[in-house]
Amino acid sequence: MKSKILIIGAGGHAKSVIDVIEATKKYKIVGLIDNDIKKRNKKIYKYNILGRDKDLKKIRKFCGLAVIAIGQIKSPKNRINIFKLLKNLKFKLPIICSQKSYVSKNSLIKEGTVVFHRAVINAGAKVGKNCIINTGSVIEHDVTIGDNCHISTGAVLNGGVTIGDNSFIGSGSVLRENIKVGKNCIISANTFLNKNLKNNKIYKS
To answer: Is 115 exposed, middle or buried (0-12, 13-18, 19+ CB in 10 A)?
Structure first.
């Protein structure tokens, strides 16, 4: 029997999350939550938008699992806030991995993280809570990624790289082996990074 799961967010990122969840064949999507009043009573594909954040307490009575499908580029604030709210309401946030991804049995992924199609997470890698490991990204051996990070499409983190909490790695970026990126950093798309970054930095090649 499939477990019921609620999706938080009803934008473009949610469409990709739905695709990954459906492919796992482990969950039954009960609907979506979105605070945009214009989306009320609408659907994403065949799934209804059930309400807003204020309705989560009511929904929790019949659904115990949730996945955050809110995108993250400039700031992880929205994802962090909803993660805390869901935890306070005793929702469980499972790890969702695409069947088209490769995740080493010797890696570690924490709750609430979604691994998208064709992503690779290799041996010894550690990925924190509430992360997005987006389509086609490569997390090489012994990489450590903190909580609330977004590793965007096609990014490559070479062996031993460390990413601090709340950081964003843009599409197509390549990080040289053993580089350390601090907390709250933003690395722009198509960047080659070959030096360490301190906390709260924005880096463009």
So the answer is: buried
pLDDT tens, residue by residue, 131-152: 999 999 999 999 999 999 999 9
Please state, in angstroms and rounded to a whole number, the distance separating the CA atoms of residues 80 and 145. 16
Structure tokens at 2: 């499939």
Strands 192-193 and 202-203: unpaired
Q: Residue 178 half-sphere exposure, CB side, CA atoms within 13 Å?
A: 0
CB 50 within 8 A of CB 32: yes
The Cα-based distances of 52 to 20, 22, 38, 200 in angstroms read 23, 23, 11, 31
Where b means 16+ CB within 10 Å and e means fewer, 75-92 reads ebeebbebbeebbeeebe
Contact 196, 179 (CB under 8 A): yes
Flag whether pLDDT at 74 surpasses 90.
no
